[in-house]
Amino acid sequence: MAAPKVAVVGAGVVGLSTALCIAETCPSCSVTVLSDQFSPNTTSDVAAGMLIPHTYPGTPIHVQKQWFKETFTYLFALSNSTEASEAGIHLVSGWQIFKTAPTPKEELPFWSDVVLGFRPMSEAELQKFPRHQFGQAFTTLKCDCPPYLLWLEKRLKAAGVQMYTRKVADLWELHSEYNIVVNCTGIGAHQLVGDEKLFPVRGQVLKVHAPWVKNFIRDGDGLTYIYPGIHRVTLGGTREKERWSLSPDPGTTKDIFDRCCSLEPSLRGAQDTKVKVGLRPSRWCVRLEREVLSRGGVKLLVVHNYGHGAGGFSVHRGTAKEAARLVGECIAALRGSSSRAKL
C-alpha cells in the first residue's frame, strides 16, 4: 500500500508532541498537523509548563507514573543539551507546602522518585512559610511556552511534517484525505466528538517580570503557585470548573497577586504584568484509545489523545508515545486489510 496519511488535529503541546512521536516511530507515514490555532494562541501557551503531576482518578497510577517518567527523562536529556535554551527547558528547584499535615499519599506522591532530590522540608526552611506545617523540597523541570512549542514545530518541519491552519468541524470530513486521524483537540473535543465527560477548568494566571525569584513555590491545595521561567514568572491561579469564559477578571488578578505575595513578599516589586486565561481540558481520565468510525461501509481509523486537564505538560511525551504506538497498530491493520484485498 502507499505511505499511510496521518492527520493530527490540534497544535498544543499534546498535538505537536504526538505528531513528532508518530514521525519518529513511523517514518514511512506522511504526517500533517491541522489546527485552527498555533502558538502563541493555544491553551498550552497559558500553562506554566511545570512537571508536577496531577492525578487522574480513572487512570491506573502505574500508567500515570510511566507517562510522567518518559516525559521527565525526555525533557531532562533536552535540558542537558545545547538546545535547552531554544526549547525553553530548564531545571527549577523549590517547595510544595501544606497548611495541614499531609495524607500518606501527599507525603510520598507516586512521582517522588522521578523528580530530583525529593525530601521533606527542614524546620529552618519551613520558617519561610509560617502558615504552613509541612512541605517537600525537590527539583523538577519547566517548559517555557511559546519557546517549547516553537521548538517542537521546528523539529516537525525538519521531519517533513506539514502544518496547516484549518478548523476541523467533524473528524469524518478528513476521511477522503487521510487514512488515520489523531484527535488531540483538548477542550475542543467537547464539541468535535461530543464528549460529555470532558469539561473546562478555567485557569487565570499572571506572567510577571521578577528576575530575582529563582525558586518555585506551590501550595499543596494547587490554587496558589509561583513558577519562575527563563524570562517571566507565572503566578497562579484559579480552578473554576465548567466556566468557559476566556476574559480576564480584574478581581481575580488582584486576588492571585495578593495570594502569591503572601508566600513571596518580594513579588510586590514585580513589573509588567500580563494576564492570561486558558481552559484546562479535564475529565476523569485521559482519553487515549483507538476508535473506528464508519459510514456506508467506509471506515476511518481514529486515535484519541486528549483530556489531560492541568497535567498535560507533566505527561505529554509519555501519552504521545502511547498514541504513536496506537497509530502503529492502525497502520498494521490497514496493511493487513490491503494485503487481504489483493488476495
From TrEMBL:
UniProt: FAD binding residues: 43-44, 168, 185
Family: Belongs to the DAMOX/DASOX family.
Protein name, UniProt field: D-aspartate oxidase
The keyword Transcription regulation is annotated on this UniProt entry: no
Enzyme class: oxidoreductase
GO terms under biological process: D-amino acid catabolic process; L-aspartate catabolic process
Cofactor(s) needed for function: FAD
Gene: Ddo
Enzyme Commission designation: 1.4.3.1
Primary location group: cytoplasm
Keywords: Cytoplasm, FAD, Flavoprotein, Oxidoreductase, Peroxisome, Signal
Ranges of residues in domain FAD dependent oxidoreductase: 5-326
Catalytic activity line of the entry: D-aspartate + O2 + H2O = oxaloacetate + H2O2 + NH4(+); D-glutamate + O2 + H2O = 2-oxoglutarate + H2O2 + NH4(+)
A Pfam family assignment: DAO
Role this protein plays: Selectively catalyzes the oxidative deamination of acidic amino acids. Suppresses the level of D-aspartate in the brain, an amino acid that can act as an agonist for glutamate receptors. Protects the organism from the toxicity of D-amino acids. May also function in the intestine.
MF (Gene Ontology): D-aspartate oxidase activity; FAD binding
Cellular component GO terms, alphabetical: cytosol; peroxisomal matrix
Signal sequence range: 1-19
The species this protein was found in: Pampusana beccarii
Location in the cell: Cytoplasm, Cytosol; Peroxisome matrix
Entries under InterPro entries matching the protein: D-amino_acid_oxidase_CS, DAO, FAD-dep_OxRdtase
Residues annotated for D-dopa binding in this entry: 225, 280
